[in-house]
Design a protein that fits this description.
By secondary structure, the protein is an alpha/beta fold. A hairpin with a 2-residue loop joins strand 4 and strand 5. It is globular, with a radius of gyration of 20 Å. It starts with a strand and ends with a helix.
Length: 277
C-alpha cells in the first residue's frame, strides 16, 4: 500500500531581502525524506531551530521556498500554485498555542463551524448539529458553544482546536507541538484524546515535538532532526530504547522521567546478548 504522505529530498532555504541579503541562503531543512502511512503517526522530534516546524509548514504549504518532492495521496504538492480547496480540506493542522490560534472574538460554534462552511455543503441546523457532535467527541459540553475562547482553560482551548481540525474529516493532521504550552497533566489528557480520535477516525498525524518520552507513546515511527537534517528514523520503540545517534541520546537524557543510566545498561545487555548469539 502506498504512503499517504511522501517527502523526498525536501530542502527549505531563506534569503534576506534587499541590501541585507547574505551571500549564502539560510538552509532550514536540508535533504529530508520521510513518509507517513494511512492512519499512522510519525513523530518528528528535535530541539528548537532543528527545522521540524519548517518541514511541517512546507507540508501545509505555508512555506513556499521549498525544493524536493512532497506527495500527498499520489499528488505532487510542490507544484501547487494556489493551494486547492480539496487539499485544505484533507490536510488540517493543530497549532502549538491554542490561545493564539483561535479567534478571540468568535464563539466556539463559529470557530468549529468555519471549516464546515468553507469545505462542505452543510448549512443552518446541520452545521449546529455537526458542531455539537465534534465538541462532544473532544470532551466539551456542546451547550457551551456560545462561549468565546477566553472562557476556557488552555487544555479546553486545545480541544476546541482539535474539534476544528476534525470538522472536515481530514486524512492527515499536522500537529505542531500541540501540547508544549500545556501543563503536564493536561498534556497527557490531550495526547490520550488524540490517540482515541485516531482509533475512531483513522486519521494520520505528523506530530511535531521535542519530548522523546511523550512522542514514544504517540508515534508509530520517530524521526529526529538536527540543524535541518534528518539524523535518525525508525520504529518509535526502537529509537527510544536503542538510539543510534548521540543527539538522539541527548534528547532522551533530557526527557522528563527518563533514567539514562538504566537505559544504557539495558542497551549494553541487549548488545551483549546479540553478540553472544
Amino acid at each position: 500500500m502506498s504512503a499517504l504522505l511522501e517527502i523526498e529530498n525536501l530542502r527549505v532555504e531563506y534569503r534576506s531581502p534587499g541590501f541585507l541579503r547574505r551571500k549564502d541562503p539560510f538552509v532550514a531543512v536540508d535533504d529530508v525524506s520521510l513518509s507517513i502511512g494511512r492512519g499512522q503517526t510519525l513523530g518528528l522530534v528535535g530541539e528548537s531551530g532543528s527545522g521540524k516546524t519548517t518541514a511541517a509548514r512546507a507540508v501545509l504549504r505555508l512555506v513556499r521556498a521549498a525544493s524536493g518532492s512532497i506527495r500527498f495521496d499520489g499528488t505532487e504538492v510542490t507544484e501547487f500554485g494556489r493551494v486547492p480547496r480539496w487539499y485544505r480540506r484533507r490536510v488540517q493542522a493543530i497549532f502549538q498555542d491554542p490561545t493564539a490560534s483561535l479567534n478571540p472574538s468568535w464563539s466556539v460554534r463559529d470557530i468549529v463551524a468555519e471549516p464546515l462552511r468553507v469545505h462542505t455543503d452543510l448549512r443552518g441546523s446541520a452545521i449546529v448539529g455537526r458542531v455539537a457532535t465534534l465538541l462532544d467527541q473532544v470532551g466539551l459540553d456542546p451547550a457551551l458553544d456560545h462561549q468565546r475562547p477566553a472562557a476556557f482553560s488552555g487544555g479546553q482551548r486545545q480541544r476546541i482546536g482539535i474539534a476544528r481540525a476534525l470538522a472536515t474529516q481530514p486524512d492527515l493532521i499536522v500537529c505542531d507541538e500541540p501540547v508544549s504550552a500545556l501543563d503536564v497533566s493536561t498534556q497527557s489528557t490531550i495526547v490520550n484524546l488524540l490517540n482515541q480520535v485516531q482509533r475512531d477516525t483513522g486519521v494520520a498525524y505528523l506530530f511535531i515535538g521535542h519530548d522523546l518520552g511523550l512522542m514514544r507513546h504517540m508515534s508509530d515511527r520517530l524521526a529526529v532532526m538536527y540543524h535541518g537534517k534528518l539524523v535518525e528514523e525508525g520504529p518509535a520503540e526502537d529509537v527510544y530504547r536503542d538510539p543510534r545517534e548521540d543527539y538522539t541520546r541527548m534528547l532522551l537524557d533530557a526527557a522528563p522521567g527518563f533514567d539514562p543510566t538504566e537505559q544504557r545498561r539495558k542497551r549494553e545487555l541487549r548488545r551483549a546478548s546479540t553478540t553472544a548469539a
